[in-house]
């Protein structure tokens, strides 16, 4: 199916395009809210600035797709494969990304406020300045990712893995990091004020000049952690 066929059928009222073969399709700027693309093949698709609000993309193959500046508010992306995809400045607020695969993806400046990302794979991804306020990242894997300046305010990162991640200037104020692993991560100038750090593994992490106001470190793992100039108040 090509782009024109899909757009014509959508304009005629059709919404169900599950399992459609749309590899390399160009749907830049298309308005397709509530479309059903479950299990569709969208590898290398060009979906920049596309309106996919409330779309169903569960189990779809979107490896290498361009979704820069796209609107995916409230979209269902359960187990979607977005490996190596580009979602720069995309809006995925309140989207469901449970068990989604985002390995190596580019999420710079992406809005992920309130999103569900439990057990998602975000290894080696770029989330510089991404907004993950109140997001649910329980059991997610963000190891090796660049999260410089990302916002995790009130986010749930229980048992999440952020091993060897770049977290300089990231904001974890009020976040739940219970039993999370941040081994060997760089948290220089990060804000961890009021965060829950029970069982959190910060071994060999860099916490230089980090904000830790209202934080109890008694139950955190701090083996060989660098804590120079940490600000506790």
Explain the layout of strands and helices.
Blueprint: H1 3-11
List keywords for this structure.
single chain; 233 residues; little secondary structure; 4% helix
The fraction of residues in strands falls at under 5%
Radius of gyration: 19 Å
Annotation field: number of helices:
1
Mean pLDDT: 97
Shape: elongated
Largest β-sheet summary? none
Overall SS class: little secondary structure
pLDDT < 50 runs, ≥5 residues: none
Please provide the count of β strands.
Answer: 0
Helix content: under 10%
The arrangement of helices and strands along the chain is H
Q: How widely separated are the two ends?
A: 60 Å
Characterization of the model:
The chain has 233 residues and is largely without helices or strands. The protein contains one helix and no strands. It has one helix at 3-11. It is elongated. The termini are far apart. The mean pLDDT is 97.
In short:
The protein is low in regular secondary structure and 233 residues long.
